[in-house]
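For the sake of transparency, this paper describes our internal protein records without simplification. The remainder of this section carries one protein's record, kept here as part of the documentation:
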Amino acid sequence: MASQTLTAPQDSTVDLAPGAGQGIVRKLAQTVLARPDFMGLLEDALISSLKAENKVFDKEQGVLVTYPDAKTRLAALLGILAQFEGDPVKRILHQHVGTPGGAQDELAETLSASPALRGAVERALRKADKTAQAAEAAEAIDV
């Protein structure tokens, strides 16, 4: 198996998305993202999850047998690809909202054509509302 060496990006500065998290979660995320070693740690975690292994004791041979942990590897791969591609609801909203020329009508058509997408958007909006309410409560406590 050929080995591939990944090089660190030239600019390892990571910014928190404008609508990502509120209150203490946002402060924690900003602190973690400010660490210079964060991107390297993140890269190591991603790569090691793709190389996950499991061990089982073989009674007949009396030794530990190591084998690839396919379930963990697949979950890691799917999670990585999903994040690289973007959360589907956020991606669809980003593609439709804020683009000039009939974007609102196109978004309305897309939502009406897909009950599953409409449900996902409604869940995302409810979650965002709860997050905003929790942030307001946290700010009230901090005062």
Notes: The CA atoms of residues 45 and 74 lie 14 Å apart. The two ends are 58 Å apart (CA to CA).
